[in-house]
Design brief:
Elements (H helix, E strand, L loop, with lengths): L1 H23 L2 E7 L6 H17 L4 E6 L10 H6 L5 E5 L22 H13 L11 E7 L4 E4 L14 E4 L2 H9 L3 E4 L5 H6 L5 E4 L1 H6 L8 E4 L7 E6 L1 H6 L2 H9 L3 H24 L3 E4 L10 H17 L4 H14 L3
Parallel strand pairs: 1-2, 1-3, 6-7, 6-8, 9-11
Antiparallel strand pairs: 3-10, 4-10, 5-8, 5-9
């Protein structure tokens, strides 16, 4: 009997030891995002951030990561954090149309050189409080961009804007939609995860994506031709937290969130996305796809007048609403020369 009790006691102590890490968490943070669990952004950026928060808090914070829009679909993710449906998200500001107009200035042609450069520009605009009023309803952790956006089509190679005439091209945001409209395309709005099915069913003829997304969302399986227009556009992203959740943390745990916020993590995100662009492009090359590079990028004489017009239209439309678009655009262009790339 004594031996049995000894074995049961030992077993109980072992079980308690195994369960103790989960029981030790004082706070559980639910983080939802749009990328698949197998994608580079999930594995190389979002999960490492979550792991670092857990490690530096000594397990007092547990971060549960929900990929693929599990907790909220991409267009609803920002509001889901604002309203406490989830605690943190990594999402695209432009999925909430007209909500972050000054932020989206970074998406205009010729602003960002690559993801590191764009991320530094965007985070700096926030830190300098030029766009901070757009984020008063959540607690921004860091902002970043993906790398250069380009055009991918099923089988029609795009060399000049007129080649886009009549083509239905998936666009990520209204800013990019205006660019595509000026380039004679027919923009079709949808979040990134819906692009594969839309392309497969013939709803769209092509997509506007960086190379990273072509691998992350498997679009290289459905496209054969790609056109690089250097500086065509980029897209802004945010990792942000519910304010009430942040404020509920004790000061020492808030300090851990703050330490893993801002420019350092913005530039880390840029590095991840620039590296994933290399992966996506190699995948297309290895598949024998045709890749065409526009000489001079956005300054090419066939493309520049149309892209300049789209940019000016966007800036003028914000100024007409009383927003300091010219000031933000000018500062973004200045930051582009001082930020790393």
């Amino acid at each position: 009997m004594c031996k049995l009790l000894t074995r049961l006691t030992a077993a109980g102590l072992l079980s308690a030891a195994l369960l103790s890490p989960a029981q030790a968490a004082e706070f559980t943070i639910r983080l939802g995002h749009l990328w698949p669990a197998v994608s580079g952004p999930h594995k190389n950026l979002i999960q490492p951030w979550a792991d670092k928060i857990e490690a530096e808090s000594g397990g007092r914070i547990s971060v549960e990561v929900y990929p693929s829009g599990t907790l909220a679909k991409p267009p609803a993710q920002y509001d889901a954090v604002k309203n406490g449906i989830m605690d943190v998200t990594a999402t695209v500001q432009g999925y909430s149309a007209n909500r972050f107009p000054l932020t989206q200035i970074v998406e205009l042609p010729g602003v960002a050189k690559d993801a590191v450069n764009g991320s530094c520009i965007l985070q700096s605009l926030l830190d300098e409080k030029l766009i901070s009023e757009e984020y008063e309803d959540t607690k921004p952790i860091f902002l970043y961009t993906h790398g250069p956006g380009l055009l991918h089509t099923r089988d029609k190679l795009i060399k000049v804007p007129s080649d886009l005439s009549g083509l239905r091209i998936r666009r990520p945001t209204t800013v990019v939609a205006e660019l595509l409209t000026e380039l004679n395309a027919q923009p079709v709005g949808m979040p990134a995860p819906g692009s594969y099915t839309a392309m497969q069913r013939g709803v769209i003829d092509g997509v506007a994506f960086p190379w990273e997304a072509m691998a992350s969302f498997r679009l290289n399986e459905l496209t054969n031709t790609h056109t690089e227009v250097g500086g065509l556009y980029t897209i802004s992203f945010i990792v942000t937290m519910n304010k009430r959740v942040y404020n509920s943390l004790p000061a020492d745990l808030q300090a851990i969130i703050d330490k893993n916020s801002g420019l350092t993590w913005a530039e880390k995100a840029g590095e991840v996305f620039d590296a994933l662009d290399v992966v996506g492009k190699k995948q297309a090359k290895d598949a024998g796809h045709e890749i065409f590079t526009i000489e001079g990028g956005v300054n090419n004489p066939d493309w520049k007048p149309l892209l300049d017009k789209a940019s000016q239209n966007y800036i003028d439309s914000l100024e007409a609403k009383g927003l300091p678009a010219k000031k933000v655009y000018t500062r973004a262009r200045e930051l582009a020369t001082s930020c790393p790339s």
